[in-house]
Amino acid sequence: MIKTKYKKDKWIKLICGASNEDIVAIEDLCAIYTAAGVDYIDVAAEESIVNAAKKGIGWAKAIFKNSPGLMISISDGKDIHFRKAKFDPIKCPPNCPRPCEKVCPTFAIDNFGIKESKCYGCGRCINSCPLNLISEYEYNLSKDDLASTLQKIKPDAVEIHTEINRIDAFAKVADILKNSETKLEKISISCGLNQSVKKTQEPEDLLKALWERYEILNELNIPLIWQLDGRPMSGDIAPNTSRDTVKLFERIGSYLPPGLIQLAGGTNDKTYEFLKSSNLPDGIAFGSSARKIMQPLIEIAHKNNKRLYEDHERMDFAIKKAQKFLKPWKSS
Ligand code: SF4
Ligand code: SF4
Question: Which end of the chain is more exposed for a tag (fewer CB within 10 A), N or C?
Fold first, then answer.
């Protein structure tokens, strides 16, 4: 008998961005990637953004029958996922070739500076300015405390952004989740090596921190996802970026606490090629790279005062592009 090789689907999450508030783009992104078959969509913990995501998901669900869960991103302290960038355009020399504008994946930069609503804090522009004029600032979209946010939004899942040394703050967030009446399908834990103190943090420290969090979350009896961020919010979407994530996974993946393992932070269309087929994670999360390939199409539609999903021809093209992007993670 000939054995058929069966490739099992891997879990895929679309990250819209914890500080992304570009509502019309979020609606389109959710529609495109729901149609292409993602399992979860991660958005900022803000009602209007969640509603936009639901609208996009709803459009695609009616046609493509896929229904991804809605995850909201929260944090137990200051976190680079909750930021935006800014600069004062008056200080820019008139002859600057404007590398900042060229690298911005969301077309947030023009002669007037950075449009706050279009910036999701990816960080690409920050290092591009030869005069170091661009800085970042903290930006958390959740206007309410976590308990009321959960009550209002009722997400399917939550991602907690945390840092190695923030165990007490993490325990407080876990306590709110425990006492919340929101029934969560999953909790994802995103804890990268802090970029500013990276030299003093080793993957083994991260492993220890994740086990500490497992001890806290275990009693909630909710399936957990361990998100390994190789280069959280590095802003770099070059092909090699995901090597750091893959390296981190290969170093500590086998020793993580019980739960699903998901790669993030620099993941892109090349990530699958860097992994050994004998050692694949349970899933993958795509942020910048998934958004970047769609943004030009979304921009054209919005300039014509349309959602991309209202422009059938371009939407069809976008969905095919998204399916191709996700293909290595889906069974054929
Ligand atoms: S490159 Fe990233 S951080 Fe800079 S303006 Fe664009 S979205 Fe914001
Ligand atoms: S690269 Fe720097 S100097 Fe040039 S336009 Fe951008 S912010 Fe201004």
Answer: N
